[in-house]
Amino acid sequence: MPSPVVYFWKRTPFIRLLSPLMAGIIIQWHWQLPLTALWIVLISFSALILLFFGISFFQRFRLAWLNGIAVAILFISIGALLTRFNDIRHHQQWFGNTDITNTAIVVSIDEPLVEKTKSLKANATVNYITKDGKSVKVKGKIILYFKKDLPAGQAGSLLPVINYGSRIILNKPLQEIKSSGNPGGFDYKRYCLFQGITHQVYLKPEEFEIVQVENKTLYQKIFYPAREKVLSILRENIKGERELGLAEALLIGYKNDLDKTLVQSYSNTGVVHVIAISGLHIGLIYWLLMLLLRPLRKMQYARWLIPVLVITGLWLFSLLAGGQPSILRSAVMFTCIVLGQNFGRTTSIYNTLAFSAFILLCYNPYWLWDAGFQLSYSAVLSIIIFMKPIYNWFYTKNKLLDFFWKLNAVTLAAQILTIPVTIYHFHQFPNYFLLTNFVAVPLSSLIVLGEILLCAISFIPSAALFTGKVLYWMIRAMNSYIERIEVLPFSLTDGLQINIVQTILLMVFIAGIGFWLLEKMKHGLTVALVAIAGFFGVHSLSLINTGRQQKVIVYNVPQHRAIDFVDGRNYMFYGEPGLLTDDFVSNFHLKPSRVLNGISPVPVINGFTRDSNYVTYKTRKILLIDTTISFTTPDKKQDIDLLVISRNPKLYMGRLANSFTIKQVVFDGSVPFWKLPYWKKDCDSLHIPYYDVSEKGAFVMNLN
Question: Could you give the CA distance from residue 670 to residue 626 in angstroms, rounded to a whole number?
C-alpha cells in the first residue's frame, strides 16, 4: 500500500508540473536566458520524452526517474519561454526598439480617465509612430497624465472629450518609468513592466490632438458601459464619500474613490481582503447563482443549463470587476469545481488549486510576483488544510453559535499560511484580526448582496433609495468598528522584517507541523524543527550584520532632502522636519529602508559632529550644501569624502574644486532638474564622480 505522500503525489499531477513552471519563470526573470538556448532545451527534452515512450515497459519503469527529470526541465523551459514572450521589451514591434525622438505617436486610451488632484490619468496603448510622413505599427503601453485646467463636469474639461477608445496624437518625448530606488522601497518600474507599461508622459492641452477615430475593443464596448452603469446606480443611491468609495470597491473593485486613511485602517486591522475583489466575492456569486437556479435541478432536460449559466455568471462578474488576478484565480477555480461536480468526477482540491495557478501563470507569468495572487493561494490552501481541524476544536448544537464559530474557524485557518507572506510584503501583523474578521467578513458579504439587490431594483427609485440608505448605514457601521479596533493598544505589530529565505522556511515549518499533527507523520516534525532552526539561524545572522552596519543613506525623495546616518541598529535623520510628520512621504520613501535595515531613531548618534555645513561621521568628512556659500582658496585643499548638494544654491564646481578635494558628489531629490546638466558637465570636466538619486535611486555609502 503506497504511503500517504506517494498517494497524494499521484493524485496531484499539476503540483508536479506547477513547481518547475514557477522555477522557469523565476530563472528567466533573474538571468534573462537567450531565446535560442530555451528553444534548444524545449525541443531536446520534448524529443527525449517521446523517445521514452518508445522503449519497453520494463525499461520505462526502471528509468522513470529520468523521465521525471526530463519533464521537469521541459516545464522549466516552458516557464522561461512564457516569461520571455510576456516581456514587452523582447517584442520586435515594441516602440522602445525604435528611435522615437522627433516623432508623432498615435495612442489609444485603454480605460476611463481617473481624476487626480492636478491631472487626469489613464493607461494607453501605442498604435503607431509617424516619422517623415511614414507610419510604423508598434506595440507597447504607456501612462498618460493630462494637465487638468478645469474641474470635471465644467465646459472645456477633458473628461467628457477623452474616454476609453479615444485616439490621440502626441509629439512629446516619452519618459521611462523609474522606481524611487530607495532601499526596501516599492519597485514601481517592475510593477508597471509586469503590466507591459514602460513609459509615461505629461501632456498639456496644446501638446496633443484628438483623432476622430475610436479604437474600442469588444471588452471596452460591453463591460466599461456596464461598469459605468453600476457606478452611477451606486452614486445615485449611496450618500457619503467614504461609504460610496467602499461600496464601489466591494462590488466591482473600483478603487479610485477609496479613502486612503480608511484603506490603511482596514490594512492595519487585517481585513483589507474584504475590499479586494477575491474568492469571497466569487463564492457569494456562486452561492447566489446556485440558489436562483435551484428550480432547474427538478427538470431533467434542463439540468445541463446549470453549469453553463453558473460559469457564465461567474466570468461575466469577473470581467465586470476588471479581471484582476485574485478574481480570475477564483473564477478559474470555481469553474473547475462546477465542471467536476456536474461531470461526476471527484478530483483532489489541491490538484484543482494547482491547475488554476498553472493556467493563470501560463496566461501571465508575472502574476507570480503579485502579492494578492500569493495571498489568495496561501489563504485558500490554508483553509483547505486547517479549517476542519480548527472547527473540530469546539462542538455546539446551537446553529447560530455553530455558524459564528465556523466563520472564526475559517478566519483562523486562513491566517496560518498567509502570516509569512503578509510579514514578508507588508512588515506588519494585525493582532486583533480575529475581532475584525468576525464582524467584517459576514457584514461585507451582506453589503455585497445588498448592492446586487440595489442594482436589480434600480428601476424602482423609492426602493433603490431605501436600499441605498440601508447600505450606507451598514458600511458606516463597519468602517466605524474597524477604526475603533485600530486605535486599541497593541492593535498592530509593525516593523517586522524577514527575507525570502525566512519566508520559505516559515512555510516549510507550518507545513511540517501540519503533517505531524494531521497525518501523524514523525518526519513532518523533523522537517519543521529543521526549518525553524534554519529560520532563527538566518535571523541571528541578520541581527549580527545589522549590529555592525555603519552607513550614510541619501534618499530619493522628490523636492526634499532626506539623509539617514546609520550606526548599528540606530539612525539619526538629517533633513526637513516636515518629512517626519508627512505620513505618506515617510511611509513610502523612508520607512521601508528603516524596516529593511532594522534601525530605530535616536536624537544623537555616536561619531557624528557638525560644524555649519561640515559633518564628520565616523572617519568620513561630509559637506552639505543647500544655500549659496562662498569658499576661500586655502593653502592646502581639504579632503571631502562626500558632497551632498540640495535645492538650488548658486554653486560653481570649479571654485569648489579649488578649495576641496572631492571624492564623491551626490545630487539629492530636491535639486531642480534643469540645474543638473550644468553641474554634471562640470563634474565630468573635473573628473569628479557624481551620483543623481532622482535617476539612480538612493545613494548608500557603507563605512565598514
Answer: 9
pLDDT score for 303: 74
Say if residues 565 and 622 touch (Cβ distance below 8 Å): no
Averages of pLDDT over runs of 10 residues in the chain (704 residues) are 62 90 96 96 94 84 88 97 96 90 90 84 93 88 86 52 86 93 94 95 90 74 84 93 93 87 90 76 79 79 81 85 72 79 68 87 93 83 86 85 80 86 91 87 87 92 95 96 94 92 94 84 90 96 95 96 96 89 85 95 94 93 92 85 95 90 96 94 96 96 93
Residue 323 main-chain phi, psi, to 5 deg: 60, 40
What's the rounded Cα separation, in Å, for the pair 253 and 581?
31
Residue type, 557: V
DSSP 8-state code for residue 590: I
| Residues 700, 551 contacting (CB under 8 angstroms) | yes
What's the pLDDT at 170? Answer: 92
CA angle 229, 231, 233 (to 5 degrees): 70
DSSP assignment letter at 97: G
* Residue 278 CB burial class (10 angstroms; 0-12, 13-18, ≥19): buried
Residue with cell 507541523: 513
* Residue 248, all three cell numbers: 464601489
Q: What is the DSSP string of 280-347?
A: HHHHHHHHHHHHHTGGGGG-GGGTTHHHHHHHHHHHHHHHHTT--HHHHHHHHHHHHHHHHHHTT---
Q: How far is CA 296 from the centre of its chain?
A: 41
Query: Is 298 buried (19+), middle (13-18) or exposed (0-12) by CB count in 10 A?
Result: exposed
Tell the residue number behind the cell numbers 573628473, with chain if given: 687
Pick the CATH number of 95-216 from 2.30.30, 2.40.50, 2.60.40, 1.10.150: 2.40.50
For residue 476 the three cell numbers come to: 458606516
Amino acid at 586: S
Q: Where are the domains of the chain?
A: 4-85, 95-216, 370-431, 500-546, 551-702
Spatial separation of the C-alpha atoms in residues 148 and 116, rounded to whole Å: 9
Q: What are phi and psi of 483, to 5 degrees?
A: -70, -30
From the list 243, 218, 249, 217, the residue with the least C-alpha distance to 109 is 217
Query: 299: phi > 0 → left, psi -120 to 50 → alpha, else beta; which?
Result: beta
- At residue 241, the pLDDT reads 92
Q: How far apart are CA 213 and CA 298, in angstroms?
A: 52
Grid cell 477623452 is found at 162
337 neighbors 283 (Cβ within 8 angstroms): no
Question: CA-to-CA distance for 122 and 102, rounded, in angstroms?
Answer: 23
Q: Find the radius of gyration of the CA atoms of the chain.
A: 29
Q: Report the largest interatomic distance among the alpha carbons of the chain, rounded to a whole angstrom.
A: 103
194 exposed, middle or buried (CB, 10 Å; 0-12, 13-18, 19+)?
Answer: buried
Which cell is 551 given? 552607513
Whether 503 contacts 421, CB under 8 Å: yes
| 330-336: long-range contacts, CB 8 A cutoff, minimum separation 24 | 330/278, 330/279, 330/281, 330/282, 330/283, 330/376, 331/282, 332/356, 332/359, 332/360, 333/279, 333/380, 334/282, 334/283, 334/286, 335/311
Going through 357-433 in order, the beta strands assigned E by DSSP cover 428-430
- Beta-bridged to residue 574, according to DSSP, are 563
For the chain, helix (H) and strand (E) counts, in that order, are 25, 24
